[in-house]
Amino acid sequence: MGSILLIEDERNARYALKRVLEDAGFSVVDVEDPKEAKNPDSFSLLILDLKLKNLSGIDFLQELRERGINVPVIVITAYANPENIISASRYGVVDILKKPFEREELLELVERVLEEKESSGEPQRYSEGVIVGESKKMVEVFKKVGMAASTDMNVLLVGETGVGKDMLAKVIHEKSHRKEGPFIAINCSAIPENLLEAELFGYRKGAFTGATRDIRGKIELAEGGTLFLDEIGDMPLPLQAKLLRFLETKSFYRLGEERERSSNVRVIAATNRNLRKMIEEGNFREDLYYRLSQILIEIPPLRERKEDIPILIEMFIDRANKEFGTSVKGVSKVALEEAISYEWKGNVRELKNVVYKTVLETKGGYIEKFIFDQECRENVEELLNRCMSMLSEEEYKEFLARAEKSLLRYLLDKYEGNKSKVANLLGISRNTLRMKLKTLGL
Ligand SMILES: Nc1ncnc2c1ncn2[C@@H]1O[C@H](COP(=O)(O)OP(=O)(O)OP(=O)(O)O)[C@@H](O)[C@H]1O
């Protein structure tokens, strides 16, 4: 049984919580004030009230993490506003319990966290899905994300490739009242134009050749939850008009059907294109833009928030170590400086790839030099050039397919068939990956 540090300044609540936990067999040290908390890193779990008299729980959390104390934390609060939630999640809080809560709810959560800690041997601080960011710009983004989660308005996430739009869309869903509902994503650039409409709105048997049965579209599948329209800038104009109608009326028609249907979904859209410019050029509907951007969140590129680079590197090293079984401890000062001054055109996704690649090479100790994508690319180019110079004209096409096939096979093997992961690493959607695999006979 793990030992728990309980920080709660309200006496009765503290007493009651301690009783519940002790009755369940946990050993508990309870304190009123965080300053009384001796050796917080010696505990298996910290239960922290967010609103303390002398110090905010968030400040205390920040201080803990800065001291390198990675004990898992469950936050209890009567003030579970999105800002608190987002701030807390930045410091690796594993869960938030909103007061009042049931005894069983608390015990279930405590047991789960302690089990996870035991099985991984490490706190879940940097587990998949944890968001980090310390720059002023990202704190502003997190605040907006929190605000977006607390409303049902449409959200437009704008930013370069790899800045975290997809990840933030999921966070908004997970922190919203729709979290028990589905999160359905559709990538508007990965699906051929004529199929996109059918994918979105569904169709009736016989609506077009190949429509052998009635199919529900993504809009229906997202009922009660969130519909994420990725790469919205690539949606063709005729479909934009139909989407606008849906956003205005919440009703739609399946293709080939006359019956009007409705769906209760919140729409989050994302793009790395300049929609304002597209509007000027007549390629994107202005009315749709305003509908979608009821809350507009612009995520800055990594090169404009370099303060986030060290913590992102730390997180990805931690994750890569867990995934590969390596034991890289950190980064040398020189390597870190080089990473900070690097341009990161592929943003966080590129940084993640570079860290993973370097951890695999380094295996242990400290990273002295990152293997930047740029250098790899140059080596690959040299190698490919050599191969290509040996090809005859008839072999070009086959060469292309073989190269793609080998890469995909390698990645699928490496990530044990995890298609989402491979698609993510290649910067393509799962659908595009599926189509490629089919074409290549994999
Ligand atoms: N602040 C962050 N903290 C932790 N991980 C992050 C952060 N930002 C991005 N990532 C990670 O970086 C990768 C790329 O993020 P994501 O796929 O959300 O980007 P995107 O903006 O949707 O890219 P694209 O436009 O190419 O679809 C993901 O693995 C994501 O988890």
Automatic annotation (TrEMBL):
Q: Does the keyword Transmembrane helix apply?
A: no
Q: Which UniProt keywords apply?
A: ATP-binding, Nucleotide-binding, Phosphoprotein, Transcription, Transcription regulation
One biological process GO term for this chain? phosphorelay signal transduction system
Q: In what residue span(s) does the Response regulatory domain sit?
A: 3-114
Mark the residues carrying the PTM 4-aspartylphosphate.
49
Question: Which CDD domains does the record match to this protein?
Answer: AAA, REC
Q: Which SMART domains match?
A: AAA (SM00382), REC (SM00448)
GO molecular function of the protein, one example?
Answer: ATP binding
InterPro entries referenced in this protein's UniProt entry, alphabetically? AAA+_ATPase, AAA_lid_NorR, CheY-like_superfamily, Homeodomain-like_sf, HTH_Fis, P-loop_NTPase, RhoGAP_dom, Sig_transdc_resp-reg_receiver
Location of the Rho-GAP domain = 297-442
Q: What is the originating organism of this protein?
A: Hydrogenivirga caldilitoris
What positions does the domain Sigma-54 factor interaction occupy? 131-360
**Under what name is this protein listed?**
Two component Fis family sigma54 specific transcriptional regulator
Q: Fetch the SUPFAM superfamilies from UniProt.
A: CheY-like, Homeodomain-like, P-loop containing nucleoside triphosphate hydrolases
Q: Which residues form a coiled coil?
A: none
Is ATP-binding included in the keywords of this UniProt record? Answer: yes
